[in-house]
Amino acid sequence: MATASTQQRSTTPAGEASVAATSGARATGHLKEVPESKALRERIRAAAVGLAARLDKSRPPARHEMEAHARSVLVSLGVAEAYLGWTMVALASAFWHDQVAAIPHNRRLLLLPQCLRDEEACQGEINEVGLVCRSCGVCSLSSLRAEAERRGYKVLMAEGSPAVMKIILGGHADALLGVACLDVLENTLDKILLSGIPCMAVPLLGSGCRNTSADEDWIRRMIDTPHRPARLQTRTYLNLMRCAARMFEPDELERLAPRTRGGHWLAETDGEGLDAIEPIACTEAIAYDFLAGGGKHARPFITLAVHDALTGDGGTLVDATWHAANVPDAVKRIALAIEAFHKASLVHDDIEDDDSLRYGKLALHQKYGAPTAINVGDYLIGLGYRLVTGQREALGVGVVGDILATFASAHTKLCEGQGAELVWRDARDKRLAPLDALAIYALKTGPAFEAALLAGIHLAGPVEPYRDVVAKFSRHFGVAYQILNDLEDWQDTEPESRRRGADVLGGRPTMLWALAMQRLAEKQRRELESLLGVSKHDKDRIARADELYQQADAYHQAAALISKHHARARAVADRLDNEPLHRLLYFLADAILDRRPLSVSES
After folding, report:
1. What is the pLDDT of residues 363-400, one digit of tens each?
2. Cα–Cα distance between 346 and 263 in angstroms, integer?
3. Which residues lie across from 176 on neighbouring strands?
């Protein structure tokens, strides 16, 4: 297929530093100094505004692109690289300024940090959502909140709260303005930016968690951003993300996949749980609660987005006339089926790995016992196939048959990959080679994403023109995605749902393990083997495994592999001559893979 033009896909203005897909951008954890003087901050900010004015606004920049642009700003000013993180925030805010201005004030969400308050004098209380301000007037938070609320803003005094994405995906706000330290901005807002949500931020002047300060005149100017129509429009996947999330809200889930046993949501049983439900309806009740109970819904989003890309690309426009009702129910049900299959695999994985938590709650086998959990997982598989076969009239027998064949192939490959992992876990020989780990990853993760992509194509038209590209993209994407999960397993990034070093605790084969086995001396290999499969969370053993991984340079080598497969996924996408689908594959690669843990670099 023809390659799209370089001009069409470049966001780098002439004369600026080039942005290569293979950049393998270094982590910026050590590059988050705040410019010490207001004058220097103003200089950097002005340069960022000037560069942002020359960038292509048709799509959000990827993280590695934003980093390259920020570096060019610092080089042009002769300023230290230590301010890279701060400059990236200034550049991102300048990039999105006009798009934020296009959003009415009452559709904007302002995040203010609790650490700006005077802890000793503050009369507010902190709950699970954030700070409940009493407007006592002893700090600037109350006046900033009042100023924003006068204009119609929704205001949340919290940092990195899960409530943020719930508000955004729930359709309650269309732009995000934030004040936080650079760590929070990089870890939280970075995840939001690539979705195409207009977003601006003012960094705090320090990284402490108590009694911090900020350039309050900049915060007030940000709040004062007037409402006016945008001259340029940046395409966004927010509409389609919201559509995917909406499918798993109780009322919409009941509409798209009506229960057959007439059960109830477990939350509606006044605490009685399964005792309040007829035994024959219990499996359905647990399955529906689990299906609606959490997750990023990445796979259903992919199917919806591919279908949209091949049927007009209307869902990526910032257009008040676009609505989730534009997506046919048959398409939504196929996307829903993909999530049912995914959730089934999670139930079974949690049993096989004896994981305690899922989505911050007890895993199903911990709550109901392994036999019930296995049965619920099997039910979810059946529900997925029921949803697909139920679309014969809407989609035609041929399309439904093709989708079923796609899902069946992905399902068997997933089981083969998981089976290989289980065999390795029970074997005496733990000398896993990197190529063996790649083979397992290619089966465990890639086929599920491939099925989500192919399902969207099947729903829109012929699949053959795209099959080879999708297969190769999914393989690279899936491998990089799984290695990224390996790294995050050692980062404590999601303490509510995982334990640090869970791969070693569970005796699971990973790329980190394979790289360490390849690079360590024999004595250290035997020591690492002795740490595998610890029956409880032994901090000393986990710490020693961490030391051995560092000694083998496994973290850096794994990060380099992520960059390699990320670049290869983008290179495969370049073979597409369909611009909307090409843009979507780039978005998936950048949004999901270009987020290496900040403490891991590739130097």
Report:
1. 999 999 999 999 999 999 999 999 999 999 999 999 99
2. 23
3. 109, 199
Helix (H, G, I), strand (E, B) or coil at 417: helix
Torsion angle (degrees, nearest 10) of CA 283, 287, 293, 294: 140
According to DSSP, residue 35 is labeled P
Closest CA to 487 of 560, 586, 569, 414: 560
pLDDT value at residue 332:
98
Q: In sequence order, what are the residues at sequence separation of 6 or more whose Cβ sits closer than 8 angstroms to the Cβ of residue 415?
A: none
Alpha helices in 354-501 (DSSP H): 364-368, 370-389, 392-395, 397-426, 434-444, 446-460, 464-488
pLDDT recorded at residue 594: 75
Q: What is the DSSP letter of 107?
A: G
Q: In terms of residues, how long is the chain?
A: 603
Please give the pLDDT value at position 2.
36
How many H-runs (helices) and E-runs (strands) does the chain carry?
A: 27, 8
Burial of 544 (0-12, 13-18, 19+ CB in 10 A): middle
Q: Which domains does the chain possess?
A: 6-223 (no CATH), 239-261+287-395 (1.10.600.10), 397-603 (1.10.600.10)
Angle formed by the axes of helices 539-551 and 522-530, nearest 10°: 150
Distance (Å, whole) CA 480 – CA 38:
41
Tokens of residue 402, six digits: 């093709």
Whether residue 67 contacts residue 48, with contact meaning beta carbons closer than 8 Å, is answered with: no
Which residues in the chain come in under a pLDDT of 70?
A: 1-30, 116-139, 159-162, 186-195, 207-211, 232, 319-321, 492-499, 505, 534-537, 595-603
